[in-house]
Amino acid sequence: MTARIIRGTEIGPVIRDEIKEETARLLEQHGVVPGLVTIIVGQNPASISYVTAKQKAAKELGFYSLQEDVPDDVTETALLELISTYNSDPRIHGILVQLPLPKHINETKVLYAIDPDKDVDGFHPVNVGRLMIGEAKFYPCTPYGIQQMLMRSGITIDGAEVVVVGRSNIVGKPISMMLVQKAEGANATVTMCHTGTKDLAFHTRRADILIVAAGRPNAITADMVKEGAVVVDVGVNRIGMTPEGKAKLCGDVDFESVKEKASAITPVPGGVGPMTITMLMLNTLRAAQSMTGKI
Ligand code: GUN
């Protein structure tokens, strides 16, 4: 079997068109423009490239968007004050602090400081808790993108054996929690694997849907995948430079061998990545709509 390729570069623009329409309607009917501020501390190249893409998407959708470039020797107090300013800025509906932060800044403290109603990343403990009890206001963007890719590709999640490799707060834990809910696009049996898992292949071979956010190339090879499984590769590993001087990327899955066994697979780049940014835009729109009481 050669897998169908599920591309965020194709599904993302469809959702962005929907966002564009709703954004225009929000302006027309309520005079509101969704506002997003992205805050980046320091000069991490990966963070700069993510934030640049987020800003570009916001502008293309007609959002009000601001970027705060903060030096990496900023004090924690100054960063918390900056967040507080945007918490009370009525033009801003979404606040995103790009992670990771420098070591001298307490990441948890920063995430707690963001108003949960402007937390378009879905990382504030209040939003993590809401997600856990099936009352989510914002879904974290990468898990939300994965769920949308599966749903919009006609893949049945209800009743599926889902295996998630990786237990990060950004991907592994939230996607597991989302897909286990008794809800549309969920209701799966979810197994979480991580570095403490004794026999990873035993679990991955049982998966109807395998979601991989392990953080290392070739973590999943064809012998670890069931024939006909759906494989979602969330990995972004930088493995050198292209002749044009761009970062060369690969995922966590050995794409070439696994695509011969899976029924569907997401590539890297062009798979989950573009969905993450799209879902951030959707969360920002939802934040703007909910603050004006219109959803
Ligand atoms: N760093 C890597 N992924 C993300 C993300 O989705 N949001 C933020 N804020 N930082 C990140």
Q: What labels would you give this structure?
A:
binds guanine; 3-stranded parallel sheet; 295 residues; globular; alpha/beta; Rossmann fold; 11 strands
SSE arrangement:
Elements: E1 4-5, H1 8-30, E2 35-41, H2 45-60, E3 64-70, H3 76-87, E4 94-97, H4 107-113, H5 125-132, H6 141-152, E5 161-165, H7 172-180, E6 189-193, H8 200-204, E7 209-212, E8 230-233, E9 237-241, E10 247-250, H9 255-258, E11 264-265, H10 273-291
Parallel strand pairs: 1-11, 2-3, 2-4, 5-6, 5-7, 7-8, 8-11
Antiparallel strand pairs: 9-10
β-strand number: 11
CATH homologous superfamily heading of the largest domain? NAD(P)-binding Rossmann-like Domain
Number of helices: 10
Based on secondary structure, the structural category is alpha/beta
How many structural domains in the coordinates?
A: 2
Global geometry:
globular
Q: What oligomeric state is this?
A: single chain
CATH A-level architecture of the largest domain: 3-Layer(aba) Sandwich
Spatially, the strands of the biggest sheet line up as 1-11-8-7-5-6
In terms of DSSP E residues, the strand content is 15-25%
Main β-sheet, in a few words? 6 strands, parallel
Overall residue-averaged pLDDT value: 96
Termini separation comes to 44 Å
Low-confidence blocks of residues: none
CATH class of the largest domain: Alpha Beta
Bound molecules: guanine
How many whole angstroms does the radius of gyration measure? 19 Å
The sequence of SSEs as H and E is: EHEHEHEHHHEHEHEEEEHEH
Estimated helix fraction: 25-40%
